[in-house]
Design goal:
The protein is an alpha/beta fold and about 675 residues long. Helices cover about 40% and strands about 15% of the residues. Among the domains are: about 5-60, no CATH class; about 75-135, Sandwich (Immunoglobulin-like), CATH 2.60.40; about 195-350, no CATH class. It is built from 21 helices and 23 strands. The chain has an eight-stranded parallel β-sheet. The termini are far apart. Pfam families: Glyco_hydro_77.
Amino acid sequence: MNDLTALAAAYGVETSYTDWRRRPADVPPDTIRAVLTALGADVASPAAIRSELERLDHERRTRLLPPALVAYPGERLAVLPGADVRVEPPDGGEVPLAPSGAGSYRLPADTPLGECTVHASLGDRTASAPLLVAPPRAPDPGTRAWGFMAQLYSARSRGSWGLGDLADLRSLARWSAEDLGAGFVLVNPLHAGEPAAPIRPSPYLPMSRRYTSPLYLRPEDVPEYAAAGPDLRRRVDELAAPARARDHTAGALDRDAVWAAKGAALERLYTLPRSPGREAAYAAYRGREGEALTAFATWCALAEIHGADWRSWPSALRDPASAAVAAERDRLADRVGFHSWLQWLLDEQLASVQSAARAAGMPIGVIHDLAVGVDPGGADTWAYQRLFAQGITVGAPPDAFNQRGQGWGQPPWHPQRLAASGYAPYRAMLRHVLRHAGGLRLDHAMQVFRLWWVPDGAPASEGTYVAYPHEEMLGALLYEAHRADAVVVGEDLGTVEDYMREVFAERGVFGTSMAWFERDPGGGPLPPGKWRELCLATVGTHDMPPVEGYLNGDHIALRERLGLLTRPASEEYEELEEGLREWRELLTSLGLDPADMTTALHAFLARTPSRLIGVSLADAVGERRTQNQPGTTDEYPNWRVPLSDADGHPVLLDDLPSDRRVRATTEPVRRREP
């Protein structure tokens, strides 16, 4: 092992990996150097690399405690060997720890969950660090359940303002629970985007993962609307009318037009007085959110003037702690207040959705989705600049459906600096998303173990994996899920090491099994009895066409047209046809009719032991178009496809109760015993 390889190992940077075909792949040396530089290591010369190795070795041998720890009751806590260690629980007192093997101590099984402090001493040296004691497993839903998976913005109703919103989500949850027995509804990330046009469509490239997009507000559900005078209500209704007219069209969704109307209505409602009770509730919300809300709202107010990329702002405004930012915050106090108020409304409407879902009989309710990262110029990176690695984007290595790899345009958390922060921003983000949730889907669940880092300017195929402290990241997730009593689902598709799935299963985190990807050792479709129990079973994902499109090879034709294939399209079609032939044979052997593949595939899912089954709303109505084609931006209308049927006619939520196809598709999973 040479010094560069040794330094990479010390920082958790992989120099080789196993690709999607299970073949070894080496990482280019230039990638390794660029990633180490982004992590703060000096690799300018052999001498600098040796010096960095010596520094890390000295730190490892002498540091009593890491900057922050996460551990589980009854399990081991890593501390420098020979130290005296004691834990201070959140309610006071002290718990001394006895050594349990070299360099580790075991927490008593009755250590209370929550935020503790660990103290260590060795000779004349002492150290203290925050310790989060997390539950050993995620909450269990307690039953088998099925639910719709919906891209909320595409699921419109006659009351929508051109995009599906939280009132629509409440209606979908209530109807699917009461009429169809659904146990949950899974939605796309609802994270905050740009505060003004142009608003990019991807829910997976947000400006903030902690806060929510006001595009999902229903203005008529704001209590001040009900109390408003007739003139103001009439003006709000006039703003809604042209937006609602677009709900009956199948053209690309227009977020800018929606926000122009909805934002204007909300600004009018913002000027209305609030009752004493409402004012007290708003004050309590602001007090709970504290500086994080102020920073986010300040970024929104500045972005309305200077654009949504803080890196192009005047230099004095790029530092959120600067005097110039403080002065602008005062000058723009009304806009800062407006954006804070919007988040309070979202908090109220999110609470209403989850409350309605549970009242309708859902044992889980809404499962929210957590994106992998954020926009490099957005609110989160502005507020927490040092916690993100610079000159790097997160992505994925080449795989069967994205053969050139993927770069997602998101800067990754800096693992060492995030640990030094005590994981505070990470935990706060999780807590916010889980506040009104029955579950959390972790997009690209490997993010708690490792991420594919791609240096700026390099192709996505020339990245490498960088490790994260997964016990700490996962422990923080389990603790916040425990606080919310929410199930955790990890999207563990693609290139995933076996040990990652084993850790998730040990910790009670559901995996994700998708019909098109589940294969037996011979490469054929995996029989239903062989599927995992602790998983969310689905036919497809939002990155693939619905069943109708898949059967027709729409994904191949699209990728061929866009130049995203790395082998002839004829080979892709041959492979697809062979795979579909195998599926039809398997379904027939199980007594299922492949003439209606959508219904047959969901009947297949119902025969698996999987605890959760997700039914895509697009599949249920016969939609053919995919929501997103990875590797593209404007070449395809990603995240702008409204829910439509097989003939391209728009389908509104109001139509679902009488839609015979919806009932036929869901009938097999509805019949499955709970």
